[in-house]
Amino acid sequence: MNFDPKNFAKYRVGDQVYYLKLDAAHRASQTGEDIVLDFHNDVFGSIDWSVRPSGTLAEAYRDRAQQIRDKYDYVIVQFSGGMDSWYALHSFLSNGIHVDEVYSRWPLIERKYQAASNTNFDESNLGSEFEFTALPVLEYVKKNFPRTHVVIDDYSESLLGDEFILPQVGVGSTAIHYLKWNRRSQYEIEQERRNSNIGVVVGCDKIVVCAVDGNVYAYFTDAFQSPEIPGRSYEFFYWTPDFPTLPILQAHCLKDHLSIPGNATKYKYYRESYRDACYPDFPIDTFRVGKQLGNVVFRSTNWVYQCNPKLVKSWKWAMDQYFNNMDDKFISKLDNGLRVGTQSVYGPMHLIASNTGIPNFGNRIHNNLRSILS
Predict the structure, then answer these.
(1) Is the pLDDT of residue 104 over 90?
(2) What is the separation of C-alpha 371 from the centre of its chain, rounded to a whole number of angstroms?
(3) What is the DSSP letter of 363?
(4) Least confident of 208-212, 234-238, 267-271
(5) Count of alpha carbons within 13 Å of 250, Cβ hemisphere only?
(6) In the 8-state DSSP scheme, what is residue 132?
(7) 231: pLDDT confidence band, cut at 50, 70 and 90?
(8) Are 358 and 211 in contact (CB under 8 A)?
(9) How many domains does the chain have?
(10) How does DSSP classify residue 200?
(11) Segments of 85-185 assigned E as strands
């Protein structure tokens, strides 16, 4: 397999191009230039987003799953149990489209330091989504789709070393993020030996919609992860230049949903509106904890400090080398000054509809938005 960069966004800093955000932020800090997110702007920028694509979302999800199936000899769906990966998997299986492997990774050693709970919805309890969210689905797939390999990868042993080596190809969001992504199942390894064309499907991500002065816009963010492992063909299920109408159709469905009186102010979190508009089959009673506040420091990995403080210290030193040489404007901090990640980078705004009457909505509403749009 060869790494295909077309599936990922690029960060542009002047005339330099980066696939890794931390490297782009480091360069921009040196030059004083801005970071520009380029998620296939040549493709998505050439389309009139105000024209609603034909068909339904269910049809688009089905067609996208079939497109991936037709492209690869061996299809892996990486599954966490969250809405995005759940619906990607659902789009295959509910339409009779074969998935060769469902791969879910968790550090099961966490149970030595933190008990599972389905009543604690704090972000620090993310690990409990294994027992109460992912595992029931994995068991269902194993029972009802016997041709599909179901892999629960316990990467606990990866957390037991003394030193976190800063990888040459990329920097994970957390120490365990890189360690867990640097893994393959025995089935994938065997397919590599056979020189099979392997596609790794990830549920990235939600197109973001905002309403400003009655106008509705959609845009991409860099919520997705940078490529960590060379030699793997990743397929973002929802965002791809191979099926550019999919996020546009999602944006129109969100606009229609927000047009219903009360829906724009119904929920605290964007993901709930997204579920109602774009993921109607997702079980509403699924256990989910709050979203992580950072993209480098997660409260859900605090238990690793108890498990292996030497590894955490080594990882923290490695990450500090980036943060200490990075302009503060690129760093996300809590009120207490703790550096928890990098600031989001946004792609161009695409107009979905004008004069909708929808009240202001979305997380890109700020004082500078009108100047961005002008």
Answers:
(1) yes
(2) 28
(3) T
(4) 267-271
(5) 28
(6) I
(7) low
(8) yes
(9) 1
(10) E
(11) 101-106, 149-154
